[in-house]
Each structure stands twice: as C-alpha cells, then as structure tokens.
Target: Phosphate ABC transporter ATP-binding protein (PhoT family)
Amino acid sequence: MSTSQPHTPKMTARNVHVHYGTTHAIDDVDLDLHSDEVTALIGPSGCGKSTFLRCLNRMNDSVAGCRVTGKITLDGVDVYEPKIDVVQLRARVGMVFQKPNPFPKSIYDNVAYGPRIHGLADSRTDLDEIVATSLDKAGLWDEVKDRLEQPGTALSGGQQQRLCIARAIAVNPEVILMDEPCSALDPIATARVEALIEELKGRYAIAIVTHSMQQAARISQKTAFFHLGVLVEHGDTTQIFTSPQDDRTRDYITGRFG
Ligand SMILES: Nc1ncnc2c1ncn2[C@@H]1O[C@H](COP(=O)(O)OP(=O)(O)OP(=O)(O)O)[C@@H](O)[C@H]1O
Ligand SMILES: [Mg+2]
Model:
C-alpha cells in the first residue's frame, strides 16, 4: 500500500563533512529541508553556514581543495552521484547570494537566461510569459515592466536582489538557497524581500543564512545554529529562540558572542 508522506524532506544531509585542505569547515552535519518551510541557518562568522549551503547544490565542486563527504539527497536521490547533471541540479536547487549579482544583460535577459539554456520555452511568447511571471512572483514586475530592455545592473540594490530571485525562480526550482540575501539592503528593501520569502515559502523549500536574529525569528519556521562547523542545535524557530537547549545557542542568540 502506498501512503502519502507529507513530511518527507525535500533535501536531507547526513554525516556531511567539508574540508578545505586541512581546515575542517563542516563537521558531521545532519539536517533536513522541507517544502513549504523556511529554514534559517545562523551562527558566528566562519562557522560554516555558507559552506554548508553550497554543498546542497554542489557549488563547492569548483572550489579548489574543497572535499565534501557524507550524503546529501534531493527527493531521496544522492546529489553527489556521478550520474547527476550539476547544471540540472542547480536549476532545481537555486541560489541567491549576499551581493546581488545580475548578469551584465538586460532585465529581460537576466530572467530569460535560465529558461533559455534549459529549453523551457517553446516560443518568444512562452518566454515572455515566464519572464513576466517570474518578475511578478519576485515582486518586481510593476517596477520594471516598462524597461525590460534596460541593464539589470542599473537597478537599485534591492531591485537587483529581487531580479536575482526572479532569475532563480524562472527555472522552476524546488529549493531556494539564500546566503544573507538582505545584508546589503536597507530596511525597506529588506522588508520587501522578507515579504517575498514569506510568499515563496508555500512553493519551495527555502534555506536562508542570516546574521539577523530578528530576521530569522520573523521569517523562518526552523532554525539551525552552527558553531565552529558543528550543527549545535536545530528545531522549531520558536523553540530555538525561547528555550534553546545548548548554552552555545543561548549565548549566541542573546548576543553574548558572535
Ligand atoms: N574557499 C575557501 N577556501 C578555504 N577555506 C575556506 C573557503 N571558504 C571558506 N573557508 C573556511 O571555512 C570556514 C567556514 O567558512 P564559511 O564561509 O562557510 O563561514 P560562514 O559561516 O558563512 O561565515 P560568514 O558568516 O562570515 O559568512 C572558515 O574557516 C573559512 O575560512
Ligand atoms: Mg557566509
């Protein structure tokens, strides 16, 4: 008998270790990411948050000296298996970086880039539709619909970040990884991106690295606290922030270190 398993994780990490040469950056991490849920990754600078995030869509593959061991799965399939097409994987597990990094192309072409290389549109009309829908989901359509041919780099920082989110969404990802997406934004742009994350969480599994405890508390359902490469504690965000089980977590969230 087949049963539906609503709580099957979208992605799992088991016994994940990452070394850069002799630096042991991630030490035996187990973590699940679920669809319809935002997981915040928090912890002091250098604790391995970005490193861990990059393992999930194999962005570490191209980092010289970086060695990843353990098992990471997407829908139960090991993403490090040789048969995995990394370009395809990164379409399914998209990434948004700390510094908005639009391509030196038009707003339109930034969003159309992924759908073009993945052959997602049969016609220019299809492509127009994907671009418009993605910009709309990213909360940017109204601001750019009359200037799609202008360079993406000419937008404000907050608009560029939403453009990068639109670019990630355009290829129908299942997971979105965000590495401090608001750290370069003012409070208004941050609020817009947070509202967007809130909206997107119904469709994707989202993992977001943040140094803002307030942001983690506002937007995430699960929180994972990293310290010196170790995942010290993870669980429901409310529990982590109101009754952390580990002294290191308590010290960090109350601002005693980090
Ligand atoms: N490309 C690299 N080569 C060598 N060591 C690296 C590399 N990237 C990260 N590291 C090391 O791995 C450890 C974890 O770094 P990482 O960037 O993952 O931390 P982080 O938690 O994201 O920090 P921050 O909050 O400052 O962004 C650090 O000791 C760092 O020096
Ligand atoms: Mg980082």
Observations:
- The longest helix spans residues 124-137.
- The chain is about 35% helix and 25% strand.
- The beta strands are 11-20, 23-33, 37-42, 66-74, 77-78, 93-96, 175-179, 205-209, 222-227, 230-236.
